[in-house]
Fold:
Amino acid sequence: ATCGTFTDDPLVAGSTFIRVRSTVTCTRIDGVRAKYGLAPYAYTNATITAGTTIVVAIDINQMRQALLEAYNVAGLPPPSYTTIPAAGGPVVVADIADLRAAVRAIE
Structure:
């Protein structure tokens, strides 16, 4: 079952508020995890507050890991990503867009 559409879809570089979008993406990922009998993922930065929290590489990497675990339980090949977030590097539109595509593919 799908959880509806993502807000601000498609994302636009320089104009989309990545912090809020990441919260929505984490929620959708945890919904997928629940569908496959997995507990919500224990994110290092469990609370992402709009306008305050800066989303960093670890957030993206943990969302990818959380989603990968659902893919594994579902018996599906892992999603592919076009970026490799590096510690200290910026979060880019493709990081979130790729995660969204992977979520849609398994919902």
Summary: The CA atoms of residues 19 and 52 lie 8 Å apart. The mean pLDDT is 80. DSSP finds three helices and no strands in the chain. The two ends are 6 Å apart (CA to CA).
